[in-house]
Design goal:
alpha/beta, five-stranded mixed beta sheet, 5 strands
């Protein structure tokens, strides 16, 4: 859910962030958040005094402390919280709100109502677990779309791929400061494990924007830096010719972004251009690490 913040000054950054977050939410998340707002309104109107105080004060404190345009601007400019600002929204007590509502409905319902409520909770639990089931490699039990590879043990104590550990070590050794955010270009597979091991190595571009569908010729003509970078990174071929495929076009595009490092799969078809454009810090298994600036 990242985007280029350079074009948004003052408090406009906060509203653009909210818009970006909302447009990237799945339908289920939108329903969940919309339902929570209804739950809060119900609590304010019909809830107990203690519940009104808790949910009202918690939202008020969050808004005053971090969820407002001015504090957003401060946290982004002074502390570099742009890529992680959305995590403040995790502090909103959504689960507690639904739990409170469920208890209220249970206490007011009769025997049949409680049975129906229990069935509804069970169904919601199954639906909520669906994505987890898919992600753990057992999706073929339901759809046949995902092969069931079972559980594969990881040799290191961090429980992430060894290649990721090596990549992180290379970048951190070059940066010299493990506490400083390093804006890096990498794919979603790397992201899933990197955030577990080294949260300071963050993506500088939304994964949804890394696509092979861009037209390189049009991107160069329009100075669309992200499209140019995406084409070289994803191995796209649209609009690619011998005349526009060069290390210079890639380097120029990178110079116009705040990307610092690149974690490139070794099977990238344009790896020779990457090698010509940037300094390779080393190879870690399936990846080559480049220093961009």
């Amino acid at each position: 859910m990242h985007f280029d913040p350079s074009g948004f000054s003052g408090t406009s950054l906060f509203w653009q962030m909210l818009y970006t977050y909302w447009m990237n939410f799945t339908l289920s998340v939108k329903v969940l958040l919309g339902g929570y707002l209804i739950v809060v309104l119900y609590i304010m109107a019909r809830g107990e005094k203690k519940a009104k105080f808790f949910f009202g004060i918690s939202l008020l404190v969050l808004i005053l402390v971090c969820l407002n345009p001015w504090m957003c601007r401060y946290l982004v400019d002074k502390w570099g919280f742009f890529a992680r600002y959305f995590r403040f929204f995790w502090l909103i007590p959504v689960s507690l709100g639904y739990t409170y509502l469920g208890i209220q409905l249970y206490e007011k319902a009769g025997k049949k109502g409680r049975i129906l409520l229990g069935v509804a909770v069970g169904v919601l639990f199954i639906l909520a677990s669906w994505q987890t089931v898919i992600m753990t490699g057992f999706g073929d039990l339901y759809t046949g779309a995902v092969p069931n590879t079972g559980m594969i043990p990881v040799s290191n104590i961090y429980k992430v791929e060894d290649d990721i550990l090596e990549v992180s070590d290379i970048i951190e050794k070059d940066s010299g400061d493990p506490n400083t955010v390093k804006k890096t270009l990498y794919n979603h597979d790397v992201f899933i494990e990197m955030r577990t091991y080294d949260a300071a190595i963050i993506p500088f571009i939304n994964f949804g924007n890394v696509s092979s569908d861009y037209n390189l010729e049009d991107a160069i003509a329009n100075n669309d830096w992200f499209a140019i970078i995406s084409t070289y990174f994803s191995g796209g071929t649209n609009g690619v010719t011998d005349s526009n495929l060069s290390s210079e076009s890639l380097k120029t595009a990178m110079d116009n972004t705040d990307c610092e490092y690149v974690i490139l799969p070794n099977d990238n078809p344009y790896i020779d251009i990457w090698n010509e454009a940037f300094t390779s810090l080393g190879v870690a298994g399936r990846y080559t690490v480049y220093k961009v600036k």
